């Protein structure tokens, strides 16, 4: 694995700052052309182990990754925070970003998809793809919420690619309902089902490290295919 560097940064967001970490390859710093933004779900923060592992794996493969914390449970607020992070990323003069991917875990990927949809409505030069780790299609046992929660996914244009990483035992993603969403989407979507995986992408009988390695490999191979 190639070496990477990390920088802790404070991102301006209204009258507040957002805590974030910039992770990038050490050896090819000036040749980084692909960036990924990641954020966490309704609980935890940017230091959720799966996000840290993915960010460092991305950097080791030559990508820039900016992960950030926004603990608000209001989706609209989360989207505004995500937009501020995107604006910050575009100001980084030491990198020439040509390809951008938005991603997140659970509620974080809802915000990522919503912002990607909004930007694609404004311009075709916005974001290239969205990475959804455990997309929360509905609260546990509340399947009726899936239409509202999937609206941004269904409205994404064809020019945006989407990667879903979900566990087969995720109680917030009914398989039949999810298949229906995929059929309704205009965007090209790929789904990686983690066998036995929960909403937290944990698998009984497997180490957390082996699961993270499998997920990271899938995400990286998908991005390399798209750029």
UniProtKB/TrEMBL annotation:
Source organism per UniProt: Austrofundulus limnaeus
Coiled coil: none
Top-rank taxon: Eukaryota
SUPFAM superfamilies reported in the protein's UniProt record: alpha/beta-Hydrolases
Domain KANL3/Tex30 alpha/beta hydrolase-like: 34-215
InterPro entries: AB_hydrolase_fold, KANL3/Tex30_Abhydrolase, NSL3/Tex30
Gene designation: tex30
Signal peptide positions on this chain: none
Protein name, entry field: Testis-expressed sequence 30 protein isoform X1
